[in-house]
Amino acid sequence: MISARTVAALQAAKARGVRLGNPRPAAAAELASAAVKAAADQFATNVLPIVREIQSSGVTSRAGIAAALNARRVPTARGGSWSHVQVGLILARA
To answer: CB neighbours of 39 closer than 8 A, spacing ≥ 6?
Structure first.
Protein backbone atom coordinates (compact mmCIF):
# COMPACT_ATOMS: atom_id res chain seq x y z
CA MET A 1 0.00 0.00 0.00
CA ILE A 2 2.86 2.41 0.83
CA SER A 3 4.58 1.54 -2.43
CA ALA A 4 1.43 2.22 -4.43
CA ARG A 5 0.98 5.62 -2.78
CA THR A 6 4.62 6.52 -3.35
CA VAL A 7 4.46 5.55 -7.02
CA ALA A 8 1.24 7.54 -7.47
CA ALA A 9 2.71 10.60 -5.75
CA LEU A 10 5.85 10.47 -7.90
CA GLN A 11 3.79 10.12 -11.07
CA ALA A 12 1.63 13.09 -10.03
CA ALA A 13 4.71 15.20 -9.31
CA LYS A 14 6.21 14.27 -12.66
CA ALA A 15 2.96 15.19 -14.40
CA ARG A 16 3.14 18.62 -12.73
CA GLY A 17 6.61 19.09 -14.22
CA VAL A 18 8.61 18.60 -11.03
CA ARG A 19 12.12 17.42 -11.79
CA LEU A 20 12.83 14.33 -9.69
CA GLY A 21 16.21 13.42 -8.28
CA ASN A 22 19.36 15.38 -7.65
CA PRO A 23 19.83 18.18 -10.17
CA ARG A 24 23.64 17.91 -9.91
CA PRO A 25 24.54 14.22 -9.44
CA ALA A 26 28.18 14.67 -10.47
CA ALA A 27 28.73 17.35 -7.83
CA ALA A 28 27.00 15.22 -5.20
CA ALA A 29 29.17 12.21 -6.11
CA GLU A 30 32.30 14.36 -5.87
CA LEU A 31 31.30 15.62 -2.41
CA ALA A 32 30.53 12.10 -1.25
CA SER A 33 33.87 10.84 -2.53
CA ALA A 34 35.70 13.66 -0.75
CA ALA A 35 33.88 12.85 2.50
CA VAL A 36 34.79 9.16 2.28
CA LYS A 37 38.45 10.00 1.61
CA ALA A 38 38.52 12.47 4.51
CA ALA A 39 37.06 9.87 6.87
CA ALA A 40 39.62 7.28 5.70
CA ASP A 41 42.46 9.77 6.17
CA GLN A 42 41.24 10.59 9.67
CA PHE A 43 41.00 6.91 10.61
CA ALA A 44 44.49 6.24 9.25
CA THR A 45 45.82 9.20 11.24
CA ASN A 46 44.30 7.76 14.42
CA VAL A 47 45.58 4.20 13.88
CA LEU A 48 49.03 5.02 12.51
CA PRO A 49 50.66 5.69 15.92
CA ILE A 50 49.59 2.23 17.08
CA VAL A 51 50.98 0.69 13.89
CA ARG A 52 54.27 2.57 14.35
CA GLU A 53 54.48 1.33 17.94
CA ILE A 54 53.98 -2.25 16.76
CA GLN A 55 56.65 -1.76 14.10
CA SER A 56 59.09 -0.38 16.67
CA SER A 57 58.62 -3.53 18.75
CA GLY A 58 60.07 -5.54 15.86
CA VAL A 59 57.00 -6.66 13.94
CA THR A 60 57.49 -5.53 10.35
CA SER A 61 55.27 -7.73 8.19
CA ARG A 62 51.80 -6.56 7.36
CA ALA A 63 50.31 -9.85 8.53
CA GLY A 64 52.18 -9.55 11.82
CA ILE A 65 50.97 -6.01 12.33
CA ALA A 66 47.42 -7.12 11.57
CA ALA A 67 47.71 -9.92 14.13
CA ALA A 68 49.05 -7.48 16.73
CA LEU A 69 46.20 -5.03 16.06
CA ASN A 70 43.70 -7.87 16.44
CA ALA A 71 45.42 -9.01 19.66
CA ARG A 72 45.11 -5.47 21.02
CA ARG A 73 41.46 -5.42 19.96
CA VAL A 74 41.93 -2.29 17.87
CA PRO A 75 38.80 -2.07 15.70
CA THR A 76 38.98 -1.52 11.97
CA ALA A 77 37.08 1.35 10.38
CA ARG A 78 34.02 -0.90 10.10
CA GLY A 79 34.56 -2.73 13.37
CA GLY A 80 35.93 -5.97 11.96
CA SER A 81 39.23 -7.84 12.15
CA TRP A 82 42.46 -6.56 10.65
CA SER A 83 44.05 -8.20 7.60
CA HIS A 84 47.36 -7.56 5.87
CA VAL A 85 45.52 -5.70 3.09
CA GLN A 86 44.03 -3.15 5.49
CA VAL A 87 47.40 -2.62 7.16
CA GLY A 88 48.92 -1.97 3.75
CA LEU A 89 46.26 0.61 2.97
CA ILE A 90 46.90 2.38 6.28
CA LEU A 91 50.64 2.43 5.60
CA ALA A 92 50.05 3.72 2.07
CA ARG A 93 48.06 6.66 3.45
CA ALA A 94 50.94 7.58 5.80
So the answer is: 77
Q: Is the pTM of this model over 0.70?
A: yes
Residue 13 within a domain? no
Distances (CA, A) of 74 to 16, 34, 92: 54, 25, 19
DSSP per-residue letters across 45-60:
HHHHHHHHHHHHTT--
**Domain membership of residue 33 as a residue range:** 25-93
Give the total number of structural domains in the chain: 1
Q: What is the pLDDT of residues 22-67, one digit of tens each?
A: 889 999 999 999 999 999 999 999 999 999 999 999 999 999 999 9
Q: How far apart are CA 47 and CA 77, in angstroms?
A: 10
